[in-house]
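Bumping with the actual sequence this time:
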Amino acid sequence: MVWHRYNRFMRKAKEHPRWDETSAPGAKAGYAGIYRCLGCSREIAIQEGQSLPDAAAHPHGEKDGNIEWLLVVRAEA
């Protein structure tokens, strides 16, 4: 789960299908921000256009499920 300290630096996103889209391991990040693995619940920060971690960079155990990335916090320049 992501945490933040100051509400003044965060705002609630409007409803949009992009928030429900998941990305495969190794896919390019569509946005800079924090992505959560829906299998193991770990989060990573990544720049737009960089490859999301694949199984070699983000290994899972038996009970961790599939690697599937979800954008949870989008960063703006």
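The tokens above came from a reply further down the thread. Residues 20-74 form one domain.
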